[in-house]
Amino acid sequence: MRLATLRSNQPDGELVVVSRDLKKMVSATDIAPSLRVAFDDWGRNKPKLEERYRTLMAGTASNAIAFDEARCHSPMPRSFQWLDGTAYESHRYRMTRGRPAPEWFLKEPAVYQGRSDGFLAPTQDVPLGSEDWGIDFEGEVAVITDYVPYGASPSVAASKIELVMLVNDVSLRAVQAVELGKQFGFTRSKPASVFTPVCVTPDELGSAWRDNRLHLPIRCSINGQLFGDPDAGEAVHGFDAMISYCAMTQPLSAGTIVGGGTVSNQDLKRGFATIAEARSVEETSDGVAKTPFLKWGDRVRIEMMDAQGQSIFGAIDHKMARPS
Amino acid sequence: MRLATLRSNQPDGELVVVSRDLKKMVSATDIAPSLRVAFDDWGRNKPKLEERYRTLMAGTASNAIAFDEARCHSPMPRSFQWLDGTAYESHRYRMTRGRPAPEWFLKEPAVYQGRSDGFLAPTQDVPLGSEDWGIDFEGEVAVITDYVPYGASPSVAASKIELVMLVNDVSLRAVQAVELGKQFGFTRSKPASVFTPVCVTPDELGSAWRDNRLHLPIRCSINGQLFGDPDAGEAVHGFDAMISYCAMTQPLSAGTIVGGGTVSNQDLKRGFATIAEARSVEETSDGVAKTPFLKWGDRVRIEMMDAQGQSIFGAIDHKMARPS
Predict the structure, then answer these.
(1) Is A154 helix (H, G, I), strand (E, B) or coil?
(2) Do A256 and B117 touch (CB under 8 A)?
(3) What interface predicted TM-score (ipTM) does this complex get?
(4) Is the pTM of this model over 0.90?
């Protein structure tokens, strides 16, 4: 099943079911007004949405119309919880200027909480008050979970993964440097994240979804130039471990979004899913970071193709901009 | 105006308007089903709720019934954003074992993001998987804001403070020590927070609300014994500064909860609003921390009285417990 959310005058947008080829869609607001609300009773709503998807794919859905990514918001324009981790060893290594990952990193992830009260739409300008903030992107895989009980094991956690999508976890590196010193997380250095127009159930991913990881390259471009396409399967920690980690001292509500961390590969030829990593590698090899951070007007595109070269989630494609 | 939320089978509970003496209440679900939803259109809903409050206070509200704190959930059982800061210099000093506050602390707060997808009710047991987690409470003042625009100044931020309440920011000190090393915030060491049954508009606080601070003692008890009643007015940063800090790189959605940090006074005779501070002072003076962290079965009560000795917000009064 593939789902999306149309922008509307409602804060949670309007739920639609999208065809596998991303060419058609049909409204699902009679089942639930929005994906966010659908998760308040996911056990009841999921089979109804799946049935709607079957009729859409069979060509028997009434009122099916053309799907247009440009009309989409993030699948959940807002969520009660957005938890984002770090799970790629080469990312960790490069972000700490070549220091080996600490001992704990290979045992368990680190997870921060992101601002979840107002995600941007996938083609919306990212408002940024200053070009001196070290404007960066982070290409990641994210999942939406059903309710995860207190202290859930990784296997219980795995059974709660309902939907998969991509995210640009917009990051402000100069602001982050200050916040790291405060040890309180990334309240200011991680402004509104942006998700792909479409989210899909894991079964849509076929064999690319295994070990609770998505084994496909995430294509990240800046101003139309490929910046990196690292394989998202190289995560040290799968989403089972990530979700279980988050549930140690509190259950996760249905509709929680969990991010897998900036995708990164040991193989430098794959490029990068964030500018900060490229700069770290340049500093190590050349003594100086050459790749600039983003400026107003720069455009970032993030997407993922299936084995047939077909876009799975649609694209995040947005411009950095002065706040309007 | 005073508002509360009754527990119900709805995830956001049911909105009621409460009388000044906390003795009567009247339903407001015809205005908005819940406080959380009321904030989706606060400009329209606020005057209607104020009118309901006036009729309740005038004794002309139809269907007014006795108010019972035991029926209450937290005023917002879940929120899209819960941001909690640190703003008391003596707290900072004691939490860092007597090291002076860093230079930045006097200029700006530090703010972390808390789990906001499932707060506990004020009299609900706090589920805690282990007594070895260093179970602690933190007594704080918190506010609920209307929409705060991108980059809002402190004075704009001040105009967005809609409601005031108290919170127990339950903290797990042994878990926190590990998370501080990861620098990603408090994803596991700050499980579900708990708010007082009642939240009130700032005008209900009279002269005790000034300089965007609440100048009254917060009474914190453990197992019926007063542990501390520090004055909440001693904050270095008011809520105007705290909210403005949070809005630097992203607007705050209507219904955002912002916490003012663990209340603390330089005067040690006022006691403490968290066990960790008491232990730090003991370590400094006696070489060893004597006050134990909480165990299963221990009960914490947090409330605040007005000048007439009347409870303003009702009480958080809950027990630490094994997860059921």
Answers:
(1) helix
(2) yes
(3) 0.96
(4) yes
